[in-house]
Design a protein that fits this description.
Strand order of the largest sheet: 14-13-12-15-16-17-18-19-20
Structural class: alpha/beta
CATH topology of the largest domain: Rossmann fold
Number of helices: 10
Number of domains: 5
Radius of gyration: 56 Å
Number of strands: 20
């Protein structure tokens, strides 16, 4: 990247630039008899107010290669310092430039090194100087440094341990990190490492304990060896034995009770099943079976036995006389399936019959439109109509039966209020 040049203007120089220039010159040993001429062409060249050194009146010397200094935060092309020729130390690397034709003293270009601050990923650590180094830094000691003998300005290198002695800086004194700070830094790093190691160890121990615990709990030491069951009245014993077999010998904490419950509920007789475990060696099965309530004849000539929900729990080739008969267009449902919504409403009506009505009822009829009616042993028919408000209709029927001769009527319609009779 090329160093930007100051613009060549009408000769106006900012005061800040002049102050920086004077401050830079004030550090060099300048004889009292020699004053700095701000009108000197070399100053104009430094400030960028005149062309390059090849311009008339400034000689033909080339600038010495090296790092460009910074004055007042503006990089310039070269650094020229007015020095008497007699003060230039041999081998110092300075270059003598011819002065103007008016006989002005020659100018010397001094090779100044910039202050470098080493920067890594973090800010540099603090650097402490011993008394001798501080005196040499401040120039209060009686001994002269090598830089002061050569008449050069010394570059101070401020940096971390990693850049001590790096190129581009000449330390003026013995600088090192305070041993207490270094020891503290090492102690902090070690403490952080110990904390990390501690958490790794704690995590590893917890993982090992959990793994060992699960392995122990899942072993045969905690296997199920006793499975009592209850509520089994109509379920097939083979279905119950299959569930018990899955439980026996299995680790009590690893058994999948939900799958065993689903397996038991596949039986047409089981409404719900509950399987529970009791640590360390026990498990139990509780069954809630379906209650057979009514029967109907399918189109295939087989009777289906249903519960209050209309679910088919069993089949029979002959009519089971212990259950109320439902007549109507029934479906040929298999055990475990539903007989349909109409037969479910008929079963609901049968369950709600009072003893006085039940004793008179021979069957329940389901029409093709789903309407319900009762048929008494006397041949009388009680029309309930749509399967709604069944409880209110039963109350009206119960009240009519208390009157003599109500059940002897050939047709009673309890779907209306009051009851209508037909002879």
């Amino acid at each position: 990247m090329s160093t930007p040049k100051l613009p060549i203007g009408d000769g106006h120089v900012p005061d800040k630039v002049l102050e920086e220039l004077l401050a830079a010159f004030a550090n060099d040993p300048v004889p009292p008899a020699m004053e700095i001429d701000l009108d000197d062409p070399s100053i104009d060249l430094l400030l960028g107010l005149t062309p390059e050194p090849d311009a008339p009146g400034l000689g033909t010397s080339e600038p010495v290669a090296g790092p460009d200094p910074v004055i007042a935060d503006h990089p310039v092309q070269a650094d020229f310092v007015t020095k008497p020729v007699s003060q230039v130390a041999p081998g110092s690397g300075a270059e003598v430039l011819a002065g103007p034709a008016t006989g002005a003293p020659a100018t010397v270009k001094a090779a100044h090194k910039p202050i470098q601050i080493g920067a890594g990923d973090d800010l540099p650590d603090a650097v402490y100087l011993n008394e001798e180094g501080e005196e040499r830094l401040r120039g209060t000691s009686g001994r002269a440094t090598e830089a002061s003998i050569r008449g050069e300005r010394t570059t101070i290198l401020i940096g971390d341990d990693e850049i001590e002695g790096s190129s581009g800086g000449i330390p003026i004194g013995t600088a090192s990190m305070d041993p207490r700070l270094r020891a503290r830094r090492i102690a902090v790093n070690r403490a952080v490492s110990r904390r990390r190691l501690k958490w790794f160890v704690v995590g590893g121990v917890v993982l090992v304990l959990l793994t060992s615990g699960f392995a122990l709990l899942g072993s045969s030491l905690f296997a199920i060896d006793h499975v009592p069951y209850s509520g089994n009245h109509r379920i097939d014993q083979n279905d119950l034995d299959a569930a018990v077999k899955r439980l026996m010998g299995h680790p009590v904490l690893l058994i999948d009770t939900h799958s065993i419950e689903a397996q038991l509920e596949q039986s047409p007789w089981v409404r719900t099943a509950r399987v529970s475990t009791d640590f360390p060696h026990d498990a139990s099965i509780e069954l809630l079976e379906r209650v057979p309530l009514a029967t109907y004849l399918g189109t295939d000539g087989t009777y289906r036995i249903i519960d209050v929900d209309g679910a088919v729990v069993d089949t029979s080739q002959g009519r089971p006389i212990e259950f109320m008969l439902i007549t109507g267009p029934g479906v040929n449902a298999e055990p475990g399936r539903s007989a349909g919504q109409a037969f479910a409403h008929a079963a609901e009506l049968i369950e709600a019959l009072t003893p006085a009505v039940r004793s008179r009822t021979a069957s329940v009829t389901v029409s093709e439109t789903g309407e319900l009616s009762l048929v008494f042993h006397t041949g009388a028919v009680v029309i309930f109509g749509a399967p709604t408000e069944l409880l209110d209709k039963l109350i009206r029927l119960e009240a009519a039966l208390k009157r003599d001769g109500a059940d002897k009527q050939p047709l009673l319609n309890v779907s209306t209020n009051p009851i209508s009779y037909k002879s």
